[in-house]
UniProtKB/TrEMBL annotation:
UniProt cross-references to Pfam families, sorted A to Z: AHSA1 (PF08327)
Taxonomic placement: Bacteria, Pseudomonadati, Pseudomonadota, Betaproteobacteria, Burkholderiales
Residue ranges of every copy of the Activator of Hsp90 ATPase homologue 1/2-like C-terminal domain listed in the record: 11-131
Family, as annotated: Belongs to the AHA1 family.
SUPFAM superfamilies the UniProt entry points to: Bet v1-like
Transmembrane intervals: none
InterPro entries: ASHA1/2-like_C, START-like_dom_sf
Protein name as it appears in the record: SRPBCC domain-containing protein
Length: 135
């Protein structure tokens, strides 16, 4: 079973795409809660390239690396990647009513409940939208 989350952002696909792939921007929006942050990000957006980021609790108590290798890219439309643990992620960018709908599908991990994973990825999408609107 894949998990799906989505959001509508009142901004162009180009703006959303550029914000999604820019490491400096990723470090601003890639968090599920205010007590976490992304401390570094590298992005080589090409098939075979990698997205590497580090998420940490702000109090330093926990952290993890997120690494994915791109398997398919269609500019302004689709990003597919395989995470270092073998799970797959798909991100769609769709033009919709003067804005952009972003849909993510991903394989769940075996550690956390599905609803917790869905809520966390949705919170990250919500932060993405806020960041885009703040630019």
């Amino acid at each position: 079973m894949r998990i799906q989350v989505s959001i509508k952002v009142p901004a162009s696909i180009k703006t959303c795409w550029d914000t999604w792939i820019n490491p400096t921007d990723v470090m601003q929006w890639n968090t599920a809660s205010a007590d976490w942050h992304t401390t570094r990000c590298e992005n080589n957006l090409e098939v075979g390239g990698e997205l590497k980021s580090r998420m940490e609790a702000k109090d330093g108590s926990m952290g993890f690396d997120f690494v994915g290798r791109y398997t398919h890219i269609s500019q302004y439309a689709l990003i597919e990647m395989e995470l270092d643990d073998g799970r797959k992620v798909l991100v769609r960018f769709l033009e919709e009513n003067g804005g952009t709908k972003i849909e993510e599908e991903f394989d769940p991990d075996d550690t956390y409940p599905i609803e917790m994973q869905r809520a966390g990825w949705q919170a990250i999408l919500d932060n993405f939208a806020k960041h885009v609107l703040s630019k």
